[in-house]
Amino acid sequence: MARLRQMPSRLQPAPRRLAPLITVGEQGRDRLRDATQEWRKWYKTARWQAVAKRIKERDNYTCQWPGCGLISDAKYAMVVDHKLQHHGDEQMFWDEKNLQCLCKPCHDMHKQRQERANR
């Protein structure tokens, strides 16, 4: 009786151009957005850190979302948020009248839901 030979595999690795689309969790998604959206680097500047600190102090470390009012000076409890999306407009990005202090839960839940609905 003749022996059966194993057939060669027809599977090939995924093309390189697809690799960046596969991200792992929030960090991978952030890295991809940082690479594709130039304005995201503004958040990593000393100028942004100074503006964010001024906004938090101006709003007395109090969440400005209607009905929340959480007060916290913990480092990551409050987020400085744009009231109106800037879409890469540098003047709108730095406009302090367009900035507000939100607690992280309100920013990540309510504000993000509102922005997705407006798209």
UniProtKB/TrEMBL annotation:
Entry-linked PANTHER family: HNH NUCLEASE YAJD-RELATED (PTHR41286:SF1)
Residue span, HNH nuclease domain = 50-108
Superkingdom of the organism of origin = Bacteria
Return the GO cellular component terms, semicolon-separated.
Answer: cytosol
The molecule here is called HNH nuclease domain-containing protein
UniProt cross-references to InterPro entries, sorted A to Z: HNH_nuc (IPR003615)
* Signal peptide interval: none
To which species is this protein native?
A: Cypionkella aquatica
